Amino acid sequence: MLHGTQYSTMKKSYLFLALAVVFVIIQFFPIDKNNPPADAAKDFLAVNNAPAEVVKLFHTACYDCHAHTTVYPWYTSVAPVSWFIGNHIAEGRQHSNYSLWTEYNAEQKERKLEETIKVIADKEMPMLTYWMIHWEAKISPEERKTMTDWLETL
Ligand code: HEC
Question: In a 10 Å sphere around its CB, with 0-12 CB exposed, 13-18 middle and 19+ buried, how is residue 147 labelled?
């Protein structure tokens, strides 16, 4: 006969084992880390001759999710965190892909430019979960203004 406490200890270790097994299994479903080609001739900043300071800010705060130059740190190899990040990259590129800027028509460019100004001015972007890990992407109000001032000239 097992005592109550022995029984619950056993239950706990089974639960732990089950979780460990699930964790191992999900590692067999990695995200796709192959960046599509990043052609300067199609790049938003390059074709619009953005000043170096603006280029740096976009690269630091936006391009990991909105371009084809994504850098994938070690934790993007660990499911389920990797799935969460992979979704943000896929969604970010879908909403506004600065690596494929020239492929948008005039109307799309106009709309995406307006949205870009808005999300920077309203501090909606970069996403909170991003800058919490990438402190360098926590851009200051002055840096936001540098970006929007230049965007307004387009
Ligand atoms: C961690 C990934 C990530 C980063 C970094 C990031 N974004 Fe986003 N962005 C997203 C996702 C996901 C969406 C779509 C869902 C949403 O709107 O929250 C989005 C949406 C957008 C949209 C569309 C908004 C709309 O109204 O539909 C724009 C424009 C945008 N981002 C610009 C930027 C700019 C500019 C930066 C840098 C200052 C940036 N993003 C940084 C992931 C990111």
Answer: buried
